[in-house]
Amino acid sequence: MRAPCKKNVNSKKIANCTITMPPSIKIFSPATVANVACGFDVLGFALNSPGDEISIALNDSGSLELHDATPYKLPLSPEKNVAAVALQSMLNALQSHQGFTITFLSKIMPGSGVGSSAASSAAGVFGANELLGRPFTRRQLVEFAMQGEKVASGSAHADNVSPALMGGFTLVRSYAPLDVIPIPSPPIFAAVVHPQIEVRTSDSRKILRQEVSIKKAVEQWGNVAGLVAGLFTSDYDLISRSLHDVIVEPVRALLIPEFYAIKQAAIDAGALGCSISGSGPSMFALSRDEATAHKVAQAMRYGFDRAGIESHTFVSPINKEGVRVV
Ligand code: HSE
Fold first, then answer.
1. Which of 93, 180, 182, 266 satisfies CB 3.0 to 4.6 Å to 285 for a cystine?
2. Which CATH number among 3.10.290.10, 3.40.605.10, 3.30.230.70, 3.30.230.10 corresponds to the domain 11-183+321-325?
3. Residue whose CB lies within 8 A of the most ligand 1 atoms, among 279, 282, 283, 284, for a mutation test
4. Entry pTM
């Protein structure tokens, strides 16, 4: 005898029979700017766009099934895909064998320096957490999403996944134990320019010096503290004085043609400060208002034009919400 057909809101008609489909949800996960000049591996903020979109559903297979609808030929084996690795670490913590089906619908361009792998990792763990009835807070999900970063770059840094999950500016005060602090901010607009060159995070981490002089360390932690204080107190001059990186930027600037000329053009156009977004090649600048941020974005783009490099720009306020169900 044929099994009775079931009907519910997630039903689909197949061969004259309406069968029940597992509920699926769609997730938007934002691009992020990590480091924010002086805060290598500890500071980051989220943008409104671009971002990743995935759909995620429970399945009965007990495994992670991945589908790619993006043009980027994403790795689809669960051990190599950042979202799957992050989700698996969450399932391990829950001692769960629940299966999930994830479809990557649209994607931040990989290797752009605006947290492409972090957006996928955050989307995977956030979506699964929603479907499982929220066993974890957004802050707790950071620990799992970091495991995706380890696959992508060889290092489980949290400065992109924290703002992707929690929104706004975030500070990773400590990695062991993980301690992520949300930082309030006054109205502030980011201009991001993405030159069409690829810099792999793993490569741009390898070139960093492993030792820092005490003189440079003093300058750097003065700026980190100044930036955090400026964000807390809405002191734009202090934010501007603090957006300096004397440790990482001088090394990585070599990977970005005309970096110093483009940075100067952003400042001349009115930016509070400008530096490399994450591990590059994108550059970001912060401005007090949207009109200035657009001028800054244009000035930075002209800089890359002059160097004969095509680039794309984004202007966004700080995204306060982070990853969300759409
Ligand atoms: N903090 C990391 C780095 C971010 O600069 O390598 C990578 O996006």
1. 266
2. 3.30.230.10
3. 279
4. 0.93
